[in-house]
Amino acid sequence: MTARTRIGLPRAMLYHKYHVLWSTFFEELGCETVVSPQTNKRIVVRGAALAVDESCLSMKIFLGHVEALKGLADHILVPTIASEIKGEEACVKLMAACDIARHSVDDISLITYVVNERRAIPEKREMLRLGKMFSKNPFKVRAAYKKAKLTQYAHDRELAREQKSLLNQPWDAPRILLVGHAYNNHDEFIGMPVKRYLESLGATVFDSEAFDHDLARQLYANISTDVKWTYNKQLLGAVEYYRDKVDGMIFLVTFPCGPDSLMVELCQRKLTDVPIATLVLDELTGEAGLRTRLESLVDILRMEAANKQGDVASKESEAPRGAA
Amino acid sequence: MEPRKVTFPHMGEYWIGFKALAERMGCEVVVPPRMTVQTLELGTRHSPEFVCVPFKYNLGNFIEAIELGANTIIQAVGGCRFGYYAEVQAAILKDLGYDVKFIRLDAGRNPLDMVRGFRDKMGTNKSFRDVKDAFFFAARLGLAIDEIQDFARKNLGFQVTPGQIERIETKYLARLAAATNIREVDAIRQEAKAELGSVALDRPENPLRVAILGELYLVLEPFSNYDIGRQLALRGIEVHQPLTITEMINHSIKGFKHVDELIAHSGGWVDHHLGAHGTESVSLSYTLMKEGFDGVIHLKPFGCMPEVNAMSAMQKLSREYTFPILFISYDSQTAETGVNTRIEAFCDMLEMRKKGVVSA
Question: What is the mean pLDDT of residues B147-166?
């Protein structure tokens, strides 16, 4: 009996969206999955050295993770996501991720699956093709895909449900929506420190990613009709849903993110009813500066909320919070 | 409703084609003033911080044209951030207090789709046939412009009488701008070809050949790239520029097949489409190198997503084959002198390589 094939999953980019799908799929096929460590200083530094200078921070971190898996896995999974829904697009970085990784990190074996609905290449077909590399039994591959898909779905729903329940809890500190792509919000270097620090200041933090994507797709058009990026639609949907439920929003952007450079500008111009702060992060961001900004933001939002609540309380004593 | 006064962003000399297209829709056209440093400053002042620089140029063009009375803007759509320009620019112009209507020139699924969509959005009473003919006419103008400029780029450095090709170019571009039908355009094209063909050239047997690749806007708008093509040509280099409107028209006809061909001819340097013209940049770098070109200059706006994708492959290709590629990023703060110095050094290096002074 040979050792199990080790599939490397870089803990970056779409891992934060699809890790349940991937790990279930490969484990069902009898492979072992190896995940790179949480983003640390070393990964960031290595990633920045490997990447083209003008890549976004998320891409730099991604390359750092790919390199961290070198020697630890037989194959590294880097999906090529061009278009998940007909007529929509993913950021071109995600289309090119596999090519970029291949040219930036030497001596690795990459496996990929392509999702491009614009050219009628669905995820299912490509993942089944990928699965057949590791199992001769097509029924097993199908079953693995089905189970992976269902597990991922349940996971997403659970996240959304948890967050929704937060809305019904009593609160006194400001509620803040952290608007950012999954790979930024959930990254140990980018979004997690921000989230933790806000929580240590007593704020309740909502995550734009832990939100029902189907609902988001119904709501985004209230802000933008032209946007073509699937993931930005999801963000805009969350923004629209929470705009009258939170006291403020933080847009978490990695420098120089292409889609966000325009989306944030549009939101700042169109959302006049909710305070917005934009944090643009790169690999040189200092924590002290970041903390000062977050502290002052929480202070301001708390004062605003107190004022508003005072007004409301005088009118209707029951309601925990008035409409904006 | 007040009558439409249409404007569009500048890109090289192609305003001639855009103007013809809009005029045939029965609209009055306001061609934005020639680009100046002020155009960029104006655009930058009202643009998001790290958006790519064509956005800023476009916005500058729009504001200048609106000040001249334009009230409708035609903005094209592309496969990267460019596809999302229109909505954000509309929001910015609205906040500035300008009342303008945006019309997205969507590439659609095929050229037919594009014509139909454009006709609907223009709300014109012209028949489908008229609109289609307008597109054909504009496209033919584009081809003629490309042909003249392509000759100029390749031969500018070898003319015996300095300024002769430029004079011919200006003369025929002006005549194209005044042309009214396809037959006339073809006649002008023939005449230009004949006159350019008779220019006395002192051409070395084996001149340096350099190709300019990269992001479409920066390649096609000489003002934005500090007229790099001309600078190179005047140093006695044969300048090739594979990206033109002619090429764009070919793409839109071929559709996805075009990308597949590029990938097939890339010598394994690219497996998946990189977005917009990223795939071209990698694939053409490889084929041009195989054809014996002396170097490639790669232009892009700072942070351009597809071209940054292309760079990781191109940098490796350049290293592995010791094939000279010069990468230049442009932003609103880029200094012309800095770019010129780099171009000069690059050309010196190419000349030395050619003479065998340095190897690799």
Answer: 94
Q: Predicted confidence band at B251 (pLDDT cuts at 50, 70, 90)?
A: confident
| pLDDT tens-digit series, residues B74-92 | 998 877 888 889 999 999 9
- CB contact A86 to B (< 8 Å): no
Residue B40's CB is within 10 A of a number of other CB atoms, namely 23
All residues of chain B having their beta carbon less than 8 Å from the beta carbon of residue A256 are: 50, 302-303
How many whole angstroms from its chain centre is CA A310? Answer: 36
* B83 vs A contacts (CB less than 8 Å): 89, 226, 228
Q: Is residue A80 within a helix (H) or strand (E), and if so which, with residue range?
A: strand A80-83
Contact B280, B213 (CB under 8 A): yes
**B88 vs chain A: nearest CA distance in angstroms?**
6
Q: What is the average pLDDT across B266-293?
A: 94
Query: CA of A226 to nearest chain B CA: how many angstroms apart?
Result: 6
Question: Model confidence over B296-336: pLDDT tens digits?
Answer: 999 999 999 999 999 999 999 999 999 999 999 999 888 89
Q: Are residues B186 and B213 in the same domain?
A: no
User: By the 8 A CB rule, do B274 and B306 touch?
Assistant: yes
Mutate to test the interface with B, among A95, A236, A269, A279 (most CBs of B within 10 A): A95
Which positions in chain A touch B306 (Cβ < 8 Å)?
92, 96
Of B113, B116, B120, B131, the closest CA to residue B255 belongs to: B113
Residue B358 clears pLDDT 80, i.e. is over it: no
Q: Which residue has the tokens 């019904």?
A: A168
Q: At A94, which helix (H) or strand (E)? A: helix A92-104
Instruction: Tell me the residue range of the domain where B162 lies.
Output: 127-202
Say yes or no for a CB contact (<8 Å) between A52 and B303. Answer: no
Whether residues B306 and B209 share a domain: the answer is yes
Would you call A52 an interface residue with chain B, using a CB distance cutoff of 8 Å? yes
Domains of chain A: 6-152 (3.40.50), 170-315 (3.40.50.11900)
Q: Kindly state whether B213 is in contact with chain A, defined as any CB-CB distance less than 8 angstroms.
A: no
